[in-house]
Amino acid sequence: MKVVSFDKLVSWVGQRVSAKEIFSLDHTCMNEYAFQQKFVDYLSASRITTVSPYYVQTFLRRYIELIERSGEEMAEELYEIYCGELLGAKQLDVSDKEVITYHVGGFGSGAGTSDHTVKIYEAPRLISGSNTTGLRTWEAALYLSNYLNTHPYDWSGKTVLELGGGTGLLSLALTKQPLKEIIITDGSAALIDNLSETLHMNAIDNGPTIKCHQLLWGTTNPNSPDFVQGPPANVDVVVAADVTYDSSILDVLATTISDFLQSGTKMALIAATVRNEQTIADWNASLDRWFDGQWSVVNSCAVPGDIDSLCWFRERTPEIRVYEIRAKLG
Ligand SMILES: C[S@@+](CC[C@H](N)C(=O)[O-])C[C@H]1O[C@@H](n2cnc3c(N)ncnc32)[C@H](O)[C@@H]1O
Fold it and tell me: CA-CA distance, 120 to 318, in Å (whole number)?
C-alpha cells in the first residue's frame, strides 16, 4: 500500500486528490504534531487556500477528525485556518475552473525526483462529453509526461509537435528538456485559445520556443479531399496522449501521423488508455494497416493506481500503454 509522505501529500493536494483517496492510504505519519505544523507552513506559504478554498476546507475537515480520533496533539493553526479564511467556502459549479498543479518531473517519490510541475486551469468537476474531452487533463497525458521525463529520449535541439494537446500538459511537461521548439496542436480552436492563458501562468523562461495552432487530423495530406495544409516542416517527434479513445477517429489520426512520418518526422510517441478492449484492438489494427513493422509498445503500466509517486493516478485508472511509431528507414 502507498504510504503518505510530506512531499507526496503536498503534490497530491496541488493536484486536488480527494481527501477520501488520500486518507485511504497509510497516513499515520500525518497525525504527528511536527507533520501537522509542516502542513500548516505549506498552507500559509502556498496560495492553495485562495485558489481551492472548498477543496482545502473538505480536506482539513477530514484531517482534523482523524487527528482527534488518533489522540495526538492538534496544531492549533490547522483549526484556525479551517475555521477562519475557509469558512463559507462554496463547492465549485460543474463548469467552474481552478488551477490544478501536476507533478511531471518523472516517476519517483523522494530525493532525486525533479520538482517540475505544470499548472493547468481546468474544470475539475466537469464530466466530459464528446465536445469537452480537451477541457480536462487525462491520465495518459500525465503518464506520458512523467514517463518521458523519467526515460528521456535525446531531445537536444529537436522540434516536438503534440497532436490533440487539449489542456497542453504533455507539451508543457517537456519544456525542461533541451528542445528547440514545441508546437501544441488540437482540432478545437477554442482549446488553442485557452492555451495562451496556460502558457502565461506557467511562465516558461529560457526553455524551448512554444507555438500553438489548430490542426485537425486528416487535413495534412494533399491527396485528401479534406486537405488544408501539409504537416508543419522540421518536426522531429510527434507526441500525443489519449487520442485513441474512439474507433471512428483512429484512421484519420493514423493518416496524420503517416503524413508527418513521410515529411521528415522520425518518430511518434502515443500514450493510450486501455478503457475498451475493442477500441484498442481497432487502434492496433490501424497501426498494422498504416505502419506495418514500424510500431511497438515501448512501455505499459497495467495498474497506474499502484504507481507510488508525486503524481497521482486514481485507483481504477485502466492500463496505459506507450506506443512508438518509427519512420521507414531509407
Ligand atoms: C481525450 S482528449 C486528450 C487531451 C490531452 N491530450 C490529454 O491527454 O489530456 C482528446 C483531444 O483530441 C482532440 N481531438 C479529437 N479529435 C480530433 C481531430 N479529429 N483532430 C484534432 N484533434 C482532435 C480533442 O479536441 C481533445 O483535445
Answer: 23
Is 228 within 8 Å of 157 (Cβ atoms)? no
What is the distance in A from the centroid of ligand 1 to the CA of 125?
19
Mean pLDDT over all residues of the chain? 93
**CA 93–ligand 1 middle distance (angstroms):** 24
271-295 pLDDT tens trace: 999 999 999 999 999 999 999 999 9
- The sign one gets for the Cα dihedral 72, 73, 75, 78 is positive
Determine the residue of 15, 126, 130, 133 to mutate for testing ligand 1's pocket, defined as the one with the most ligand atoms within 8 A of the Cβ atom.
133
264 by DSSP, 3-state: which?
A: coil
- Name the stretches of the chain with pLDDT < 70: 110-113, 127-132
Which amino acid makes up residue 297?
A: V
Q: CB within 8 A of 116, min separation 6: which ones? A: 103, 104, 105, 106, 149, 173, 176
Residue 195 and residue 215 in contact, taking contact as beta carbons nearer than 8 Å:
no
Give the pairing type, strands 159-163 and 181-186: parallel
> Of all protein residues, whose CA lies closest to atom 16 belonging to ligand 1?
187
CA nearest to 326, candidates 299, 283, 287 = 287
Domain boundaries, the chain: 6-83, 98-326
Q: Could you give the residue ranges of the DSSP H alpha helices within 15-138? A: 19-23, 33-45, 48-51, 53-70, 76-83
What is the tens place of the pLDDT at every residue in 174-191? 999 999 999 999 999 999
What is the structure's pLDDT at 111? 52
56 closest CA partner among 25, 22, 19: 19
User: Which ligand 1 atom is nearest residue 128's CA?
Assistant: 1
Q: What is the CATH number of domain 98-326?
A: 3.40.50.150
Please choose, from the candidates 262, 269, 266, 327, the residue with its C-alpha nearest in 3D space to the C-alpha of residue 294: 327
